[in-house]
Amino acid sequence: PNTWQWGGFLFAWSGCFLVLLLSAGIFGYDIASGRIRMVMTEPIRPFELYLYRFLGLSLQAAAHLLMAGALILLLHRLTGRGETDHIAAWLLASWLIFNAWAALSASLSVVVTRGQNSMLVVLGTIAVVFPLYMLLLFFEDHLGTRIYLAILRYAGPPIELLVQLGRGKDNLLQAMGSIGQSLLLTACYGAIGIVLLGRREFKGATD
Fold first, then answer.
1. What angle do helix axes 46-79 and 172-199 make, rounded to 10 degrees?
2. What is the pTM for the complete model shown?
3. pLDDT, tens digit, for every residue of 161-199?
4. What does 54-72 look like in DSSP terms, one character per residue?
5. 100 within 8 A of 179, measured Cβ to Cβ
6. Angle at 89 between CA 88 and CA 93, to 5 degrees
């Protein structure tokens, strides 16, 4: 039987990895070169600049996901391979997790140089997930493990919740809760970036 889930593939690659390419140096290159001063002298406030660039990333992701979804449906129709169950839910979940990662990566780009924000997202994810794996492997029932897992579940990008949304396992209330938490976390990550962008002092000389 076909067990390949196109929705999960879309979620992993388009939702979690595409953002690393699109958001690399979104603020870092302009800050490092001094071009940010030219932008900030225009009648534009830090939150507007951040919002415009974040919306640009989000719209790119939406266009990519729609094209990828259409291509997946076409390939499935022509070849019959894999499963496309709940593809609309997977598309929504992929876009939501992309936005969460994009806001986090863009906020990091305000404080790290050039395109290192994407690398920092990858290294930070590994640094967080590896201890979790070891805790679940050796101390699954320990209180500290449950606390660590709860912190990741409610403060980190909501991968677990959105995977369940994509699989169609949530009822309407649970789905709305998952979407709401994803949007709230995205807004929190973005707010941090806006505050950092507003407090930075930019130099004109190129590094």
1. 140
2. 0.89
3. 899 999 888 888 999 999 999 999 999 999 999 999 888
4. HHHHHHHHHHHHHHHHHHH
5. no
6. 120
